[in-house]
Model the fold of this input.
Amino acid sequence: MNQKLFFSGLITMFLLSAIGHFAHWNNTLQFIISAIAIIFVAGFLGKATESVAHYAGQRLGGFLNATFGNAAELIIAIFLIKEQQFAMVKASLTGAIIGNLLLVLGLSILLGGLKYKEQRFNNRLADHNSTLMVMAVIGLFVPAVFVVSEKFTIEKDQFLSLAVAGILIVSYILWLLFSMVTHKDMLSDEVMNADHGEEPAWSKGKSILFLVLATVMVAFVSEWLVHTLDAFSEQFGLSELFIGAFVIAIVGNAAEHSAAVILAMKNKIGAAVEIAIGSSLQIALFVAPVLILVSAMFGNTMDIVFTPIELTAIGVSVFIAKSVSRDGQTNWYEGVLLLMVYVILGIAFYLV
Done:
């Protein structure tokens, strides 16, 4: 019965969000309806991911969730790039990275830790994730430092951005090869891969179908919500930086929020960490570089130079997330620390 009610709410809110968008309802009303729809769609995606993870294993399941969850952000960013709103794109990428590392991971560790005194996952995987996060910061930090040189022309700036983008993409692809193929056994998490006697919600084929369907629904609802943001930000006096880094990022990360928290509360913290940190790594090492290449295809290359504020936020997030996850074990207080840093950054971004 609960499942029937959930799917009824999912279909109803999705249709209302669509009608509100195409019928041009009041922007605030559209925002509220789409935000509620996102919650339902994220829940659907989380359940589909959990079911797929039962068949594919928690690591692959977490990777699939991060990939499908980031699909919406990638689609939204491409639309923004076509309109040459590069500042908004970079702000949303920043928000996606810090949102996953602080909000998603923090909530997962907190709520999972309240149920289980201590949760563990593969510490070798934690070490590699930490190193990759530092690599991502280097890839974003170096261009910002060197482009201030007087010798750097616009052409050199664009070349450096394209070169760094290509290197980051290759690094990410090689990481997938390393973690999913050559060193798969070393990085596996037997405890978290156990199904604990649970049965999957759907068959393998239906789980994959629902995962794709949920991702498409997330993309549509996210786009409809983004179209209301300009009017919404004007009405409530929110800056473009805050909208991009927090509002759009929270909407885009809704799928990861739901899935990671659900898995953590089932003592599958390894999968939750894979979703949260894996999604941030995918944004920094793959999505952002791909957007640089896409902008070049549109004829106006977006550079990979982030503002000092954005780099500070990313650097701080990586530092605290690395400190929390490096030992392969978590407790509820570490989740609180991550959330406190997110609140600090949120206040700072709001006041800019």
